[in-house]
Specification:
This protein is an alpha/beta fold. It has 11 helices and 9 strands. The protein has a single domain, classed as SGNH hydrolase (Rossmann fold).
Length: 331
């Protein structure tokens, strides 16, 4: 999802050049992607019907070997800071008082095995500025590491939201939003041709964030969101390697401050603390832990030979993060 970085279409477009440079810097030319295409990046080739409907090829016990996290600002941890909950009297032994955390960092700090699973972080809070360029770059880099699992919680969000098309032009209509969305699906199909499991989420209606982190011009109509989710449901139906989180339902619970049932657990905000930030768009640290638990729970059935190597205990994850333990692979 996104931060309110722009003042409208003009500023968003002004960021395109910066994002182009940003994506170029992020590229890893020494690693050859095994899923490269000769097609224009805004119109990636669709997988064949056989590839799209085939099961993920998971080697038992190795599903979590190389996890790639792709997406936008929710996955990138916008505004997520983990802080000490108690004071420390021994100044020499005091760990950092706070630490920024993204979804990948949470996964690393939640590891219950040694060595911890390798998590490569490619999500970017700049996704909104040019979804065509940033989205393709994230897929390129993820494929280059030959991942065993891809987590794409908010990868599709800015293919539908925003003021910029995948071609870097101003968004003119709701039809263009849906056309953008097809490009996002086609990019994910590049991962599926390698038979790697993916976890995604549906597209929530974030109109509550208008005036806080979003501008009205960035938000699709309710009918466009409904059409995109209907298309997404059909897309997932023919792709057994894809699992989808009902993010619309989860976010509604997060915003209401009520009890959340996810990953076989009951999460109580009174115990966990606030789960969504004041911007009504991004989760807090505790909310990110809840989302991480939900994502891993969805993929668990892909490999029944071993339990997921994570323990999503908020206090324990906070302690490990503040102790300065290594987190995810840097961008």
């Amino acid at each position: 999802m996104q931060l309110r970085r722009s003042t409208g279409i003009a500023t968003d477009l002004a960021l395109v050049f910066f994002v182009f440079v940003f994506a170029a810097v992020l590229a890893e030319p020494q690693v050859q992607s095994f899923a490269e295409t000769d097609h224009d990046p805004t119109t990636p080739a669709l997988a064949s019907e056989t590839d799209r409907t085939s099961e993920a090829v998971v080697v038992p016990g190795h599903l979590y070997d190389r996890i790639a996290v792709i997406g936008a600002s929710v996955s990138d941890g916008f505004g997520v800071v983990v802080q000490n909950q108690t004071a420390h009297t021994d100044a020499s032994a005091t760990p950092p008082e706070e630490r920024r955390m993204n979804l990948s960092d949470v996964l690393c700090s939640a590891s219950s095995v040694t060595p911890a699973p390798i998590v490569h972080h490619y999500a970017s809070e700049l996704f909104f500025a040019n979804p065509g360029l940033v989205g393709k770059s994230e897929i390129d880099r993820a494929l280059a590491i030959k991942p065993t699992l891809v987590l794409a919680l908010d990868y599709l969000f800015w293919y539908l939201y925003g003021t910029v098309t995948v071609a870097g032009e101003p968004m003119q209509s709701e039809a263009e939003r849906l056309a953008n969305f097809e490009v996002g699906l086609a990019q994910l199909d590049r991962v599926l041709t390698t038979h790697v499991p993916i976890v995604i989420a549906d597209i929530p209606n974030m109109s509550d964030a208008i005036g806080k982190m979003l501008y009205e011009s960035q938000v699709p109509s309710g009918s466009t969101i409904a059409k995109a989710n209907a298309r997404l449901t059909e897309w997932v139906r023919t792709r057994p390697a894809v699992k989808m989180m009902a993010l619309t339902t989860v976010l509604a619970a997060l915003k209401s401050g009520g009890v959340i049932e996810i990953a076989g657990r009951t999460w109580i905000p009174a115990d966990c603390g606030p789960l969504i930030q004041k911007d009504q768009l991004h989760p807090t640290f505790a909310g990110t832990v809840v989302l991480a638990a939900g994502l891993i729970d969805l993929v668990r059935a892909s490999d029944s030979s071993m339990p997921p190597p994570f323990a999503f205990e908020i206090d324990a994850i906070r302690t490990r993060a503040l102790a300065g333990e290594p987190l995810s692979k840097p961008k």
